[in-house]
Amino acid sequence: MPADVTVADVAAALGVPSQGPNPIVRDVHHNSAAVTPGSLFVAVRGVTRDGHEYVDAALANGAVALVVEEPSDTEVPQLVVPNARAALGVAAATVHGHPADQMVVVGVTGTNGKTTVTHMIESIVAAAGRVPGLIGTIGARVAGEAVELARTTPEASDLQRLLAQMAVAGVEVVALEVSSHALALRRVAGVCFEVVAFTNLSQDHLDFHSDMEDYYLTKAALFTEECSHHGVVWTDDPYGARLAGEAQLPLTTVGITAADVAATDVVSRLEGSSFTMIIGGERHKVNLPIPGRFNIANALIAAACVVASGMTATEAARGLSLLPAVPGRFELMPIESPFTLIIDYAHSPDAIDAVITEVRALDPGRITVVVGAGGDRDRDKRPLMGAAAARADRVILTSDNPRSEDPARIASEVATGFAPGSEYVIELDRRRAIHLALETAGPGDVVLVLGKGHEPGQEFADGRVEPFDDSVVVTEEWDTIAAAAWGSS
User: Can you give the pLDDT at residue 59?
Assistant: First the structure.
């Protein structure tokens, strides 16, 4: 545990003056409802709420000091800063004893592949007999124990508290997904990464970023010596190639051929892939137990990260070969059927295209895609999602997470991307859409259920979340179909 930290210590870290009482600070919170006695409350200005409006609530819950942009009429110590959001991570890191400095932290950013890469890093670390930590879209794991998260990259105060928990548990290497929202909102402030990795960049989140250039620059800000000691970049991606030329820190390039870390002898099947990894002048055979050529790319990135952090390429190859399935990421469902069923989180045009391309290369029968688009998100990508999905033989457009939008309107906007003559139907009930795809699939076909992956629910208006897990629903619906078929035979 860190030594007692006082308000004066936090002020020094923030570079602001401290006057009056100097109490010990036990925790840091940005949510007044979460404040516990002895906490420091940071009044962050949000999109819809201003933390300064909750100062009284924080004090009532036991806050002993405040970080504010505008002072309040109170007797507790107040540290006045120009940007409370930027101060949040630094304050929390200080109070929790800079836990990131007590372990190797690997950050992974990019549009697609972050979750798979971080799971691969976790597998490598565990196989090498070291204690891993994982933080990302599917949740967190502290030395193998699951922790639920509200977002891909936790808010800065929550992240530092989680890292402190990992430090106490003896975590040696933590793999952290770093979203563009997290970078723009300073959620990783106070973390110095040993290694940061870039997977790729394609259209997504343009409801948050002004354009692709803003999206790229937000990601690229991670690749500086102020943020990390080493970078790993997938240079087969155009934005990755650009980043490799602009990044301001030592780099390892990764690609299928012309890069520091590359692959040869590639064989891809539905049951998995094999390849020879070329790294540091050495060649290592890898048998990857999950399918998809894009997962070979993810594996090379993960290997480059752990080697840059001080592990060996032999350890990387072994850990990749022992990788368990990543929930909702090109996940082959174990159902007894004459066709193949795959669930994947693909919800951007490039991700949808990549999944269909991979399956098409395996020369299946017909490919059926069940897909929808999320509501209250980047509308411009919807026709592009439709165009990508139309590369399948048949598309069933359905509802994803409609949130406050009309699912029918979302589906119609996706459908504008289809070329004339494309075979598709619209079934907005996601369960019925999945049932339709399964009951019409033939021997040798592949059914792809895309968009939600690991998610356990559907989000509707007013924040309502109804239970819905694609992996559960496909199993239930196939059991129903199979039972009806056996009963009629």
Answer: 97
pLDDT in tens, 52-61: 999 999 999 9
Q: Average pLDDT, stretch 64-70?
A: 96
Q: What's the pLDDT score for residue 489?
A: 42
Torsion sign, CA atoms 388, 216, 229, 164: negative
Within 156-206, residue ranges assigned H as helices are 156-168, 180-184
Q: Is the pLDDT of residue 482 over 80?
A: yes
- Which residue(s) pair with 146 in the sheet? 141
Residue 486 binned pLDDT confidence (cut-offs 50, 70, 90) = low
Dist CA 427 CA 368 (whole Å): 14
Distance separating alpha carbons of residues 456 and 447, to the nearest angstrom: 20
Q: How far is CA 129 from the centre of its chain?
A: 25
The helix-helix angle for 84-95 and 7-14 (nearest 10°) equals 130
Query: CA–CA separation, 210 vs 189, rounded Å?
Result: 22
CB 25 within 8 A of CB 95: yes
Asked if residue 479 has pLDDT above 90, the reply is: yes
Using an 8 Å Cβ cutoff, are 398 and 370 in contact? yes
Sheet holding 65-68, edge to edge: 27-29, 39-42, 65-68, 78-80
The span from the CA of 272 to the CA of 293, in Å, is 9
Mean pLDDT of 64-92: 95
Closest CA to 177 of 141, 131, 230: 141
Q: Taking Cα atoms as reference points, which of 16, 57, 20, 18 lies closest to residue 35?
A: 57
Phi-psi region of 437 (alpha: psi -120 to 50; beta: other; left: phi over 0): alpha
CB 86 within 8 A of CB 79: no
In this structure, which amino acid lies at residue 90? V
Among 106, 255, 230, 118, smallest CA distance to 172 is for 106
pTM of the entire predicted model: 0.91
Of 262, 192, 200, 199, which Cα lies nearest the Cα of 230? 192
Domains of the chain: 5-95 (3.40.1390.10), 99-321 (3.40.1190.10), 331-488 (3.90.190.20)
Is 43 in contact with 51 (CB distance < 8 Å)? yes
The candidate with the shortest Cα–Cα distance to 427, out of 449, 445, 443, is 449
